[in-house]
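Q: Sequence in, structure out?
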Amino acid sequence: QVQLVESGGGLVQAGGSLRLSCTISGSIFSIASVGWYRQAPAKQRELVATMTRGGGTNYADSVKGRFTISRDNAWTVSLQMNTLKPEDTADYYCNAGIGRRDYWGKGTLVTVSS
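A: Exactly. Output:
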């Protein structure tokens, strides 16, 4: 099992930047993939960015060129968000995959004002 805790959310003006961090504890060396997802009010949770154990990355089209996912060390995953837009406003969740099981943090709120 792993535990995930997100941090770094907040209020930012459009065009600004934020860096989200996810601190992972538990069976960190069993993790096959990590990622960030987001959920806006009245919308379904959607993929933002993922990274495999080998370092391969995948991004939603809406964030390509603006967001960057990184595995800073074995227990920290970050999401650098640049050129933020009001439509990026959402709760952002950290995810870790072990086998067929997904683990989630409780989320951190990002609000982008226009």
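The chain has a mean pLDDT of 95.
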